[in-house]
Write a structure and sequence with these properties.
Blueprint lengths: L7 H14 L19 E6 L10 E7 L4 E6 L8
Antiparallel strand pairs: 1-2, 2-3
Length: 81
Amino acid sequence: MITALKQASDCQDWLIVLIEGADIQSSDASSYGDEPTIADVNSWETFEDAAILSRDAGLIIRTAAGAEFQITILQTKSGRE
């Protein structure tokens, strides 16, 4: 369990938990009209897993329709220990 976001990689892990923990089966797209839902996410992987040459943490998210998004996570300020 992630208790505090102290580094960019913690934020990345938190986003993965959100994606994996979403109840895709109960997403009712009709109640949102054309709004995207978590059910639209087909797959994801970290920059590290995808061998993206970057010093930043991040995710690649692919949708069922074939779109691909890269989310880069930059830590702009350190928190207190």
